[in-house]
User: Fold these one by one.
Assistant:
Number 1:
Amino acid sequence: MIERAFVIPFEYLAELSNKKSKEDILKLLEPLKSKVEVLLIKKDGDYTELRTKEDIESFLENLKSSTAVMYFDGASAGNPGRAGIGIVIILPGKKIKISKCIGKATSNEAEYKALIEGLRKAKELGVKNLVVRGDSQLVINQVTGKYRVKNERLKDLYNQVKELEKFFNSIYYEKIPREWNKKADYLSKKATL
């Protein structure tokens, strides 16, 4: 029996497009598509219908060319002290690394400034769909709305993040363990020297 539809979260496909080729994703979706009339890609409450193999291929091609993964980290020697930011942006066929001293800041301010710098760079590169990974529980939970921003110094940085988010079709935040963020961590610490 063929079901009418199957819903796939957009964020799942965006993440998958950074790990697998278009052909590999098609292989994953083909058995599913053969069991339903339409695949529905859900993004922010809206749905995109994919009825044919050509629809799926076109959708994946557009997604693959406009999706990036960004890792960010901030470091402070002294808290507050000499601070640095580290960012790694991974695009199809390209990796961009940023390491920059930002002067005196707390570790939380450095984390926010790394996120802001990374969002600005992704915007400049024309990225439309962004997966953002960081190891700061505070920053990730504040920008996703799980925590309130109480610190006055962080509110302005938080507002800058929210303004930059408007330039992307989709943005997905993921809190990752520190050991998965080694490259951005290295770049942020290097900038404090």
Number 2:
Amino acid sequence: MNPPEDDMDEDDVDLEDDGPEPPAFEVDVSDSQAHVAIDRDAARALVERVLRGEGVTSATISLAFVDDPTIHRINRDHLDHDEPTDVVTFALSDDGDDRLSGELVVSAETARRVAAEVGAEPWNEVALYVVHGLLHLCGCDDLDEASAAEMRRREDAAMARVGLANPFRAARRPS
């Protein structure tokens, strides 16, 4: 026995169910270090506010807060720089993708040390590293003097948007 025919066209039926839409911003936070207390909710809010300020409407971001030996290994293995650094950014989306996707590895140990050197709050230094990495994901670089100046301007604006002082302004330091 066949089901009764109705007046629906095949075009009226959505046969693909992709499931629910993902949230506009998905931020995964991991924290394997003991140098700076990380408020995961504050870190997620920072990412969303900075990206919205940069015009991003949809993103999946992974944040990993690590110590210097860990970021040193990542920096050496992926960028051929044999030293610890403040943040390493991995873009996972391509130009033209609807959703920005990336991973940031942040050295909270470096942030604590630098914050002490410049008289800043450690969280502000960590936040600056997150902002810097997010700006890289948004296409900003700092490879020459002009682009570094633009990066600093955008860092200042992003830190101001989230109500944090930019510790970079507290002291001159190499970029």
